[in-house]
Amino acid sequence: MERYYDLVIVGAGPAGCTASLYASRAGLSTLLLDNGAPGGKLIKTFEIANYPGTGVLSGVDLAMKMFEQATAFGATYEYGDVAEITKDKVVKLSDGQEIQAKAVLIATGTKERLLNIPGEKENIGRGVSFCAVCDGAFFKDKDVVVIGGGNSALEESMYLTKFANVTIVIRRDVFRAEKQIQEQVEANDKIKIITKHIPKEIVSENGKVSGIVLENVDTHETQTIPCSGIFPYVGQDPMTQSLKDLGVCDERGYVIVDKNMETCIPGIYAAGDVIQKDLRQVVTATNDGAIAAQHIFHSISNL
Ligand code: NAP
């Protein structure tokens, strides 16, 4: 083994950054790894209005502030694509590197769930997008369809109205999102809402999205809505592929932890959206990261 750390954190979103801040301030040698830009889902989020003390600020700004603080006390940040984490706390990267840790914290978060309908995968980047903040500006003065009625769908729909006319499609006749964002959506002239319909197929012309086929859940009648962009926000799945042999996940793939954020394998912890829990928010992710780091510090100190 070439490299050793007290703590290796996999994932530099709010949970990973907070754990990095707490662990490095406590004096642990800490490596923070991510296989994308630091910030996790924050960097794909237009605005954060429910993180206490910051007012309303952009997701990217909050991500950068968290990341700067995460590495301000001696933690090392590196690009790292983690292929496997072993019971012995060896973190194996896809480039062949192996890093030994006294503790590993999994803070890999979740990824957007696909609609899994015809025309979706082949049109990603050709009108199908999972990131309004990244791609919204490509749809200036065009019509886009957002699928889903959760917080992500409604918040990103509000952002998309800066550029486009938005149709939100939900499968029930009620939203899942919080009331405040529902009220904003319902009051926005650039947003139309279609209830009780499910997406069946994405259609394209000349290599670009041209519409979406919707089916009425009661009558099963179908209609095609012309549009240039489709933004599916139908929920998330945990990113736990690298843990598949550890036996620490529930049937949906979320990591099961105790009150200290430790899994059933001593020294392997998880925090943030990737764990089995009820409330997935930035503030609960930072809370998890702090608890995990503090417990890891005490465990390592007692060794
Ligand atoms: P979510 O809350 O699970 O909502 C998913 C939405 O997609 C629901 O409206 C669901 O419909 C719909 N849906 C699921 N599968 C579908 C399908 N196959 N076809 C059509 N519609 C489908 O997901 P999310 O919005 O990504 O949020 C994930 C978590 O992050 C949540 O806990 C959320 O509260 C949190 N979050 C919080 C904030 C914030 O606090 N500002 C922002 C973003 C996300 P049904 O309602 O009918 O099931």
Describe, in plain words, how this protein is organized in 3D.
By secondary structure, this protein is an alpha/beta fold. It has 2 domains: 3-111 and 236-302, FAD/NAD(P)-binding domain (3-Layer(bba) Sandwich); 114-232, 3-Layer(bba) Sandwich (FAD/NAD(P)-binding domain). Helix content is 22%, strand content 29%. It contains 6 helices and 18 strands. The chain has helices at 14-25, 59-70, 132-135, 151-160, 179-186, 282-302; strands at 3-10, 30-34, 47-48, 57-58, 76-79, 82-85, 90-93, 98-106, 110-112, 143-147, 165-169, 191-194, 197-205, 208-216, 222-226, 229-232, 236-238, 268-270. The strands form 5 sheets. Strands 1, 2, 5, 6, 7, 8 and 18 form a 7-stranded mixed sheet that branches. Strands 12-11-10-16 form a 4-stranded parallel sheet, covered by helices on one side. A 3-stranded antiparallel sheet has the order 13-14-15, with no helix packed on it. It is elongated. Bound molecules: NADP nicotinamide-adenine-dinucleotide phosphate. NADP nicotinamide-adenine-dinucleotide phosphate (NAP) is lined by residues 50, 115, 147-153, 155, 170-172, 176, 198, 233-236, 280-281.
SSE string, helix = H, strand = E?
Answer: EHEEEHEEEEEHEHEHEEEEEEEH
Number of strands: 18
Largest beta-sheet details: 7 strands, mixed
What is the name of the CATH superfamily of the largest domain?
FAD/NAD(P)-binding domain
The overall pLDDT average reads 96
Unreliable spans are none
What percent of the residues sit in helical stretches (DSSP H or I)?
Answer: 10-25%
Tell me the structural class.
alpha/beta
Q: Please give the count of helices.
A: 6
- How far the N terminus sits from the C terminus, by CA atoms, comes to 21 Å
**Small molecules bound:** NADP nicotinamide-adenine-dinucleotide phosphate
Number of domains: 2
Tell me the name of the CATH class of the largest domain.
Alpha Beta
